[in-house]
Design brief:
transmembrane helix, transmembrane, membrane
């Protein structure tokens, strides 16, 4: 089985998460009808927690949600891959 060196694996994972998160955020802004509406209070809370300027509520929400979705799908794919390889 092919095994990558740890620094190369970390770099590839970081690059994948960054590109996929930014792509998801871009899609969020281009096609806003495909994403669920969030209550304004959640956006205000998120900006308060992250200490972002108040004008960037939509950007903070899109980045955080895109990152969580990307990370969740990546971990799910990794778990399925490991389960399939152990057979």
């Amino acid at each position: 089985m092919f095994r990558m060196k740890k620094p190369l694996l970390v770099a590839a994972l970081t690059l994948w998460l960054s590109v996929a998160t930014l792509t998801g955020t871009r899609l969020w802004f281009v096609y806003p009808d495909f994403t669920p509406p969030f209550p304004p209070a959640f956006g205000v809370w998120l900006v308060t927690v992250l200490h972002w300027p108040k004008g960037d509520v939509e950007l903070a929400l899109a980045l955080c949600c895109s990152f969580v979705a990307t990370l969740s799908l990546t971990l799910l794919a990794w778990a399925l891959w490991r389960m399939w390889c152990r057979r």
